[in-house]
Amino acid sequence: MRPGAVAEEAWPERAAAAAPATPTVELVNAAASVVGRSIWSGVDLTVAPGEFVAVIGPNGAGKSTLVKVLLGLLPLSGGEARILGRAPGEANQEIGYLPQRRSFDPGLRVRGIDVVRLGLDGDRWGVPLPLVSRWSRRRKEEDERLAEVLGLVGATGYARRPVGHVSGGEQQRLLIAQALVRRPALMLLDEPLDSLDLPNQASVAALISGICRDRGVTVLLVAHDVNPILSYLDRVVYIAGGGAVAGTPHEVIRSDILSRLYGTPIEVLTTSDGRLVIVGQPEAPAHHSDRHTHA
Amino acid sequence: MIPAHVAAQGAGVPLSWDLAQDIRQLFEFHFMVNAFRAGTVVAIAAGLLGWFMVLRSQSFAGHTLAVAGFPGAAGATLIGVNPAWGFFGFCGAGAAAIAAVPRARSGTQGGGFSEESAAIGTVQALALACGFLFITLYRGFLNGVNALLFGTFLGITDGQVWVLVGVAALIVVALALGGRLLLFASVDPDVAAARGVPVTALGVAFLLLLGFAAAGASQITGSLLVFALLVVPAATAQRMCARPAWSIGLSVGIALVVTWLGLSAAYYSSYPIGFFVTTFAFAAFAATHLATAVARGRRSRQAP
After folding, report:
1. Cα four-point dihedral sign A124, A129, A134, A135
2. ipTM above 0.85?
3. Kindly report the CA angle at A14 between A10 and A15, in degrees rounded to 5?
4. What are all long-range contacts of A130-135, with beta carbons under 8 Å and residues at least 24 apart?
5. Judged by CB atoms within 8 Å, which residues 231-250 of B form the interface with A?
6. Which of A197, B57, B190, B288 is 20 to 30 Å apart from A255, CA to CA?
7. How far apart are CA B304 and CA A25, in angstroms?
């Protein structure tokens, strides 16, 4: 299914905002530390507008730390960062953020569409007056915007159900809609494929890549495993061993590069269908949480 | 005509078959009018804040704040000041103590288990112990203990009503200004924080308001039965409807109805108000659960 039936062209404000000279993300010799412990250092990264970039690496390597740095929630301990040409934290209104999480509490009695709407107006003071807002033009525009993003992610059918009652994959689509609803220039998605089963991983990956391509939204996606998104990627940032390497997937995910990064012999194998298997990495076994597959 | 002091002694007022006559009789005495005024105001405040409390899974904190009203009122009586000061002072202090404990977040990594509930339980135990101490120090107070713990609708003064109106107005205005931010911070704290919503400050402010609402409700339902107004209407409303605006309205509506029914039932019988408010609220909750279970069963049978 291709859910992008609504308005195929890139969002006009994006086309104007994305002046080709300004990189969306720029890190120069960046270093981050959490409570005095160095997480990574010497990281250089340039992401051009409209690129689909994956941040890959083992557990605890500092992938989410990178996302927090880009949002300005964690200051760099060294080097420089520019997001959309501004300091981290100053461009957050143009960033759609999907934090790392498992799921919503099954008892949460709020509809999916309300969660998506909060992405649009949740940071606004005051509450809409029940009768006045029904006829206001802004409200009408917002309703159209909601309908558009829900259609885009294919969530129209279950958006009015309590968000705790829909499946993990459906929740993830709603959260992507929430991140998209302000028409961001950049989406920061922290492990959006985690906790999804394989078919859902493939379809959510295809959805994100479609949004990136059709709408001109830059996507920086944190992932555990590169394979579900490998065919869509423009660039990979591999974080491990206190450093990072950036480049195209085939430049980065190679035995020699990863061996140098980890400081231990690593072998990258390619299966017959083009999937990459990384052998020898010092990583704890991946945990699979499927709290929601029973729904 | 039954004089107020007879009703006050719990003899109850005979109920006739003439509903209009009964309702007229209900408002015959000033204490009863004040009870309805206070109950109405408290129900609105409790219905509103209780909704957010249930949404944020902070019921245990709410209960502790309500219990903190008990030593507050007992202590105020002991030193001879208006119990309302004790209710609001101790509930406010309890809110500040709980706010100092880091909040556990479900569903996000990094939040995990925290000492939140253990710390709240500690505050609650201390509050009850202090209350018992104050009662022991103040001899001859024992008749009042039941009222503090389980509520009374007698002898609510005009002054008390105005204090409750003030607190409820504060809560309504605060939620009208920041309700949507609080909803965002409750449902989706990480995204809200990235958007610049002051998640922590909102949490502290919410606890303080919750303390005030619990203090207000304590004066009607007693410290131990505050939940009848704070949790049950909100939980019932959320079960009935997942649309925030409607659900909040329902929560307030249920709180109002059970308070009014409870006051009327207590007036026409010799049994305490706390029991009636709690029982009516529980009936609404149970009926809603039953109805949704039946509806779900029917839907799953229709599904192929």
Report:
1. negative
2. no
3. 75
4. A130/B245
5. 238-239, 241-245, 247
6. A197
7. 50
DSSP classification of residue B224: T
Instruction: Tell me: pLDDT of B267 over 70.
Output: yes
**Does any CB of chain A come closer than 8 Å to the CB of residue B143?**
no
Looking at residue B157, what is its pLDDT?
Answer: 85
Q: Do B181 and A123 touch (CB under 8 A)?
A: yes
Please write down the long-range contacts of B283-287, taking CB distance under 8 Å and 24 or more positions apart.
B284/B232, B284/B233, B284/B236, B284/B254, B284/B257, B284/B258, B285/B232, B285/B235, B285/B236, B285/B239
DSSP B125: H
Residue B30 φ then ψ, to 5° = -65, -35
Among the partner residues A71, A109, A127, nearest to B180 by beta-carbon distance: A127
pLDDT tens-digit series, residues A255-295 = 888 888 887 888 888 888 888 888 876 655 444 444 444 43
Q: What is the mean pLDDT of chain B?
A: 84
Is pLDDT above 50 for A228?
yes
β pairing state of A37-47 and A25-34: antiparallel
Q: How far is B96 from chain A (nearest CA, A)?
A: 24
If you write DSSP's letter for every residue of chain A in order, what string do you get? -----S--SPPHHHHHH--TTS-SEEEEEEEEEETTEEEEEEEEEEE-TT-EEEEE--TTSSHHHHHHHHHTSS--SEEEEEETTB-TTTTGGGEEEE--BS---TT---BHHHHHHHHHHTT-SS---TTHHHH-HHHHHHHHHHHHHHHHHT-GGGTTSBGGGS-HHHHHHHHHHHHHTT--SEEEEESTTTT--HHHHHHHHHHHHHHHHHH--EEEEEES-SGGGGGG-SEEEEEETTEEEEE-HHHHSSHHHHHHHHTS--EEEE-TTS-EEEES---PPPP---TTTT-
Look over chain A and give the mean of its residue pLDDT values, rounded to a whole number.
Answer: 84
**Cα separation of B130 and A221, whole Å?**
53
Q: Amino acid letter at A130?
A: P
> In A7-34, which positions are buried (b, 16+ CB within 10 angstroms) versus exposed (e)?
eeebbeebeebbeeeebbbbbeebbbbe
DSSP 8-state symbol, B129: H
pLDDT digits (tens, 9 = 90+) for A16-47: 454 556 899 999 999 999 888 899 999 999 99
3-state helix, strand, coil in chain B (%, to 5): 75, 0, 25
A-side interface with B, Cβ within 8 Å? 71, 73, 92-93, 95, 97-105, 108-111, 114-115, 118-119, 121-127, 130, 161-162, 178-179
B192 lies within 8 A of chain A by CB: yes
Residue B237 has pLDDT above 90, yes or no: yes
d(CA B74, CA B130): 9
Residue A10's pLDDT is 57
Asked if the Cβ–Cβ distance from B242 to A109 is below 8 Å, we say: yes
Cα separation, A97 vs B243, in Å, equals 24
pLDDT digits (tens, 9 = 90+) for A98-117: 998 767 888 888 999 999 99
Distance in angstroms (rounded) separating the CA atoms of residues A11 and A19:
14
